[in-house]
C-alpha cells in the first residue's frame, strides 16, 4: 500500500506541472480509424523505432512478452521495471519536472486510474476494444485491461482433502478451520469488492466472527502467502492470485486452488503516456499487449486470465466481479481501516 501517498501527492505534482499538462494530447494515430490505419501505424511506428516502457511486470516474464514484439516489428523496447509505488512516483515526479521519458505504462488499474486523473495518460481508439471482457474498459479509454489478477483460495493438499473444502465463506465458521486460515495482509481491495457484493454489514460481521472463532494469520505479499501454503504453514489461504498455485502445482508442489463465490479479480492494464515521445510505436506495442496473437497469448501461457475474450481462461466458466479502481482510490481509508479492524494489523513491511 506504499503507493497511496504518491496518489495523494499527485495533485500537487500535477499543479506544479500545469503548463506542461495543459498541452493538447498527441494527435498522431491514437484516434485514427481510417481503413489504412494498420498500414499507417506500422510505417509511423517503425520510423520512431523505439519505446520506453515502465512496468511492474515480473522480471522473469519480461523477455517472453517483449522479445516477440521486437522480433516482429524491429522496434526496441527499453524497460524500466520497479514496484508499484516506485513506478507511480517516477511517473508523477517526471511529469512535474517536465521530463517525458516514458511512452507506455503497465501496472494495476487503480494506479492507472490515478495517472488518468492527473492527466498523465491519453485516450486511444482501438479495434481490439471489442474483444475485451465486457465492462472491463473504462469509459474514458485512457487505459485498457490486459490481464485479470483473480483472487483464489489455495490449500495444501497434504493437509486438507478436496472433499473437506468449504463451499462458502460461511463454512469457515466451522471450528475445524481453527489455526489453519491465512490472508495476504494488503488484500483490502479484495475485501472491499467482496463486501460490496455480499453486503457490507453482513460481510463484515461474517469475517469478524470467522477471525474471532478460528484466527487468521497474515503474510505480506501474495507470492509469500502462496509459498506458505506449499510449506503447510498456512493450510488454507483466502487470497492468492490464481496463476501462482497453478504454476506451483505444475512444478509438483502440494498445492491446489478453488474459488468461493463471489469471485473477485483486479485488472492490470496498459496505457500510453500523455506526452509520449514515440506515440505511434507506443500504440503498436499497446495493441500488441491487447492482441490474442500477441502478448495475450503469452499471458495465457503463464496461467494469467487474459482480458481478450478470444482466448480461453484458465478459470473457465467463472464470473468475475472486478475491483472498481475508482472506489479503490476514493475509499482507501475506509476499506484499509475496516480490513485492519476485521483481520488485525498485519505484519510490518
TrEMBL record:
rRNA-binding is among the record's keywords: no
One Pfam family recorded for the sequence: SBP_bac_8
Signal sequence bounds: 1-22
This protein's UniProt keywords: Signal
Xref: InterPro entries: SBP
Positions in coiled-coil regions: none
PANTHER family: THIAMINE-BINDING PERIPLASMIC PROTEIN-RELATED
Official protein name in the record: Iron(III) transport system substrate-binding protein
Organism: Pusillimonas noertemannii
Lineage: Bacteria, Pseudomonadati, Pseudomonadota, Betaproteobacteria, Burkholderiales
Amino acid at each position: 500500500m506504499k503507493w497511496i501517498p504518491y496518489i495523494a501527492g499527485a495533485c500537487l505534482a500535477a499543479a506544479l506541472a500545469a503548463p506542461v499538462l495543459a498541452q493538447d494530447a498527441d494527435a498522431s494515430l491514437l484516434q485514427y480509424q481510417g481503413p489504412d490505419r494498420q498500414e499507417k501505424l506500422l510505417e509511423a511506428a517503425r520510423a520512431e523505432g523505439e519505446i520506453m516502457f515502465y512496468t511492474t511486470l515480473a522480471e522473469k516474464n519480461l523477455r517472453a512478452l517483449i522479445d516477440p514484439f521486437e522480433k516482429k516489428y524491429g522496434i526496441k523496447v527499453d524497460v524500466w521495471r520497479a514496484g508499484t509505488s516506485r513506478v507511480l512516483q517516477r511517473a508523477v515526479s517526471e511529469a512535474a519536472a517536465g521530463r517525458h521519458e516514458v511512452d507506455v505504462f503497465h501496472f494495476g488499474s487503480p494506479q492507472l486510474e490515478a495517472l488518468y486523473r492527473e492527466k498523465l495518460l491519453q485516450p486511444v481508439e482501438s479495434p481490439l476494444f471489442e474483444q475485451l471482457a465486457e465492462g472491463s474498459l473504462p469509459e474514458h479509454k485512457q487505459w485498457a485491461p490486459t490481464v485479470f489478477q483473480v483472487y483464489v483460495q489455495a490449500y495444501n493438499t497434504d493437509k486438507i482433502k478436496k472433499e473437506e473444502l468449504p463451499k462458502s465463506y460461511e463454512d469457515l465458521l466451522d471450528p475445524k478451520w481453527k489455526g489453519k486460515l491465512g490472508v495476504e495482509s494488503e488484500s483490502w481491495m479484495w475485501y472491499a469488492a467482496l463486501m460490496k457484493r455480499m453486503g457490507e454489514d453482513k460481510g463484515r460481521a461474517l469475517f469478524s466472527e470467522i477471525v474471532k472463532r478460528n484466527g487468521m494469520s497474515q503474510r505480506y505479499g501474495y507470492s509469500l502467502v502462496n509459498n506458505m501454503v506449499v510449506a503447510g504453514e498456512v493450510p488454507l489461504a483466502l487470497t492468492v492470485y490464481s496463476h501462482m498455485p497453478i504454476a506451483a502445482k505444475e512444478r509438483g508442489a502440494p498445492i491446489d486452488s478453488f474459488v468461493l463465490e463471489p469471485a473477485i479479480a483486479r485488472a492490470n492494464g496498459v496505457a500510453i503516456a500523455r506526452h509520449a515521445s514515440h506515440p505511434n510505436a507506443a500504440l503498436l506495442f499497446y495493441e500488441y499487449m491487447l492482441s490474442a496473437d500477441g502478448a495475450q497469448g503469452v499471458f495465457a501461457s503463464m496461467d494469467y486470465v487474459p482480458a481478450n475474450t478470444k482466448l480461453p481462461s484458465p478459470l473457465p466458466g467463472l464470473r468475475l466481479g472486478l475491483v472498481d479502481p475508482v472506489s479503490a482510490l476514493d475509499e482507501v481509508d475506509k476499506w484499509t481501516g475496516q480490513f485492519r479492524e476485521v483481520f488485525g494489523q498485519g505484519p510490518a513491511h
